[in-house]
Amino acid sequence: MTTPSVRVFHKLEGLFSTYKPPGVHWKLVRDTIETNLLKGINAASRPAPVHRVQFLAEPNNALSEVSSELTVSASSVPSLAHHPLVNGPEFQHLCVGVGHKLDVFSSGVLVLGVGRGNKALTDLFKAGVTRDYTLEGEFGMATDDFTHTGRLIEKTTFGHITRDKLERVLAMMQGSNQKALLTYSNVDMSTQEAYEMAVKGELYPDGKSPPILTGLRLLHFQPPYFRLEVQCLNETQRYLCKVLHEVGLELRSTAVCKGVRRTRDGHFTLQHALTRQHWAAPDIIRAIQQHRSSRKTRKAKSTQLGQAKGQANHVEEDLISGDSHRLHSVLNTKAFGC
Amino acid sequence: MASACNQLCQRCTSIFRSRTVGIIRFQYSTNAEHCPPKLLRAPVLPFMLQRSQTPSKMWTQVVRSFSESHTKVHSSEKTTRDTDALPRTHVVPYQNPRPLQLSHGGICVNELQTALDFGEAPVHSALEEISDEVAVGMVIQSALPPVSISLKDYVNESETLRKLVQLGVQLWKLEQRPNVGSMLLKLDFQADVAPRLVFLKQLGVEDSRLGHLISHNPFILTESLENLQARVAYLKSKKFSAESVASMVSRAPYLLNFSVKRIDNRLGFFQQQLGLSAHKTRDVVTRLPRLLCGSLEPVKENLKVCKLEMGFRENELQHIVTVIPKVLTANKRKLIQLFDYVHNTMSIPHDLIVKFPQVLNTKYLRIKERHSFLQFLGKAQYDPAQPNYISLEKNNMASRAPAATSRLLVGFRKWYYNAAGFNKIGLMRDDTIIEDSDVKEAIRRLPENVYNDRMFRLKRALDLSMKHTILPKEQWTKYEEDVRYLEPYLKEVIRERKEVEEWSKK
């Protein structure tokens, strides 16, 4: 039986992204969203109260006539067993799953799934998706946990660092990571297949792998502060802080991380991430609907592309095999667009 | 019918049943015919007898909730007990328990009388057929489970539960607490619940708060009335006004469950530790009555934190507590985090925090957001001695907009806007931007309706300027209505152009 609450819940099933502020544990974000969603779902109107039939004796008959002819009348009374105060709210728990996690120090896009969305969440993260981060760094210090809040270990000079040198180091790191990606992708490098995959950028580590940075770019440089944009796979935020530390060491200096901010997780970008003020059911429903519709269009596009590609492949094959009849028909369909 | 009777015969072998599985528990006893009638007619027993109007008049069933009086009465009978599950499918001549009435002997009088002339009734066989009239006369009630994990099963039958639901008590929350469900079931509405409700009502607790109070503290229904009265009398003797007692009781449900000694101890503690006057202690306690209910350890810790870690002086602490008593019960870690941010990052001195203790009552993220935004605007200036001072109080207010630009400046802008004159021919500010390549690109990107509006305004303006007239005054574009519709698109175009230039330089 679908009640209004269940209908609201079905609307909520899916994926959406939130913006996690720094200094907050991801579990707190998840719990806040769960309570807010429960509030929203249970606020939906309740179904009409259930009635039950009760046999009530009619006392006036008993007085006038013999007691053996006591009549009993059926009446329907609202059943208290289904009262909201007795039964409690319809939904008391909600399955809210978290995608790739963010530690307390970092902020940015955090993907959450509700209900059946949880399955999609695991599927999404099994498929190789990269994530974008912006890292804020500062030269001249080293701390025990690589962030600026940690215990200071070392102080260094940074006057010798130029933009050029920094970019050279970043390029070197990107190169070595690229190489690591090739080794972890488990594809024979001397094949045509590997070449094609590498050209399309479809190489992805097979199974578990250490964190890999697929892209590193300097966004802003004003010593001692600098900002990097990073695309990566299988990373943790701690690892990213460490990357900054290593950049500092490569440059004969030291660096600490002042902030980690995830700007993209798969196809979830900052643009659609819900900020703290919007962690309520109506906004989340809107975000989920939007994600569903965008996924549909993406799917449609990819299938179209796939079909076009498939046809092109056929044409090539047919040309090679000399199957002129089939080639003719394929070309016809292409030409007339049917 | 016969099969039902057969089952009953089997059933009467087991005289007492008790099951102690769930949290809500009843005990049934089925007294068979062979129980000595004199015992049944003994003056102790009638209140607990309930007799079914079966034709055979042989089953008297005694149902009692699990109470002490029950065991006392039946200890003399020396009956055996077993814990078999009772088959409950056919219960035709079998009257079901009314645990509520029985628990306090509230049986209807006529039923009691029928129970008493039990001995004179002719003995019937279980296999005997009954006439239709008698069958009609039988009262069959819905089966109540003897054990349940939820109060749902009993709420239709129990008067107390029904009345509590009507009061707005959240039974679903209460049943999750251990022993509360069976405690509620044992209560009799008239004898136990009603006097306490009347007492609370006389105290001045509002009707709407009664449900809340009982949902949080159901044990007030078992507390003796004298105790409750003594505690209220104590509070009144400490010169708490009647209204403040009522509000304290409704906001701190457990207050009246604590002994006078304990309440006195608490009041003394707050007065001594904080060194407050009696009047101020009363004020603090009235505003945060849960200070009297909770443990004193966290309060002591918070006081230490305020004194040692934060470095407030005694009199400063007094002031903070009298303004914001919540500081005493706040989470220690959160309090420190907040103070750390306010004092070290926003660099607000102690005396200013004491002046605006509300700062310590806000959320960390809220303060942080507000401060970073003000810093971004270059307006984070909290020193009252300097210009552009932003009060901490205002800081906490939900003013999400930046500190507003001064009225004078707005007035000047308005005047300038009207003096420029384009509004008199119905144009907006963004219509008057000279169309270079950037602007053209931005206009191309406008949504269609906005673009059409712009075209309409431009055409109208051209027409008017040819005729050397202006629009009637009510159609002039007002300063408030002017939207910079082109600005975001233009900014984006310029940003992209710069990026392209930067790119081509390399």
Automatic annotation (TrEMBL), chain A:
Matching entries from Gene3D superfamilies are given as:
Pseudouridine synthase (3.30.2350.10)
Basic residues: bias regions: 292-301
* Domain named Pseudouridine synthase II N-terminal: residues: 96-236
Q: Which SUPFAM superfamilies match?
A: Pseudouridine synthase
Q: Name one Pfam family in it.
A: TruB_N
Region Disordered, residue ranges = 291-314
What the record says about family reads:
Belongs to the pseudouridine synthase TruB family.
Q: What is this protein called?
A: Pseudouridine synthase II N-terminal domain-containing protein
Organism annotation: Umbra pygmaea
UniProtKB/TrEMBL annotation, chain B:
Which SUPFAM superfamilies does the UniProt entry name for this protein?
A: 14 kDa protein of cytochrome bc1 complex (Ubiquinol-cytochrome c reductase)
Stretches that traverse the bilayer: none
Where, if anywhere, are coiled coils annotated? none
Q: Which domain of life is it from?
A: Eukaryota
**Topology within the bilayer:** Peripheral membrane protein
Pfam families xref list: mTERF, UCR_14kD
Q: Which UniProt keywords apply?
A: Electron transport, Membrane, Mitochondrion, Mitochondrion inner membrane, Respiratory chain, Transcription, Transcription regulation, Transit peptide, Transport
Q: Where in the cell is it found?
A: Mitochondrion inner membrane
Where mainly located? mitochondrion
- What do the Gene Ontology cellular component annotations say? mitochondrial inner membrane
GO biological processes:
regulation of DNA-templated transcription
* Record-stated family: Belongs to the UQCRB/QCR7 family.
Quaternary structure, from the entry: Component of the ubiquinol-cytochrome c oxidoreductase (cytochrome b-c1 complex, complex III, CIII), a multisubunit enzyme composed of 3 respiratory subunits cytochrome b, cytochrome c1 and Rieske protein, 2 core protein subunits, and additional low-molecular weight protein subunits. The complex exists as an obligatory dimer and forms supercomplexes (SCs) in the inner mitochondrial membrane with cytochrome c oxidase (complex IV, CIV). Component of the ubiquinol-cytochrome c oxidoreductase (cytochrome b-c1 complex, complex III, CIII), a multisubunit enzyme composed of 11 subunits. The complex is composed of 3 respiratory subunits cytochrome b, cytochrome c1 and Rieske protein UQCRFS1, 2 core protein subunits UQCRC1/QCR1 and UQCRC2/QCR2, and 6 low-molecular weight protein subunits UQCRH/QCR6, UQCRB/QCR7, UQCRQ/QCR8, UQCR10/QCR9, UQCR11/QCR10 and subunit 9, the cleavage product of Rieske protein UQCRFS1.
**PANTHER family noted in UniProt:** CYTOCHROME B-C1 COMPLEX SUBUNIT 7 (PTHR12022:SF0), UBIQUINOL-CYTOCHROME C REDUCTASE COMPLEX 14 KD PROTEIN (PTHR12022)
Listed name of the protein: Cytochrome b-c1 complex subunit 7
Its source organism is Umbra pygmaea
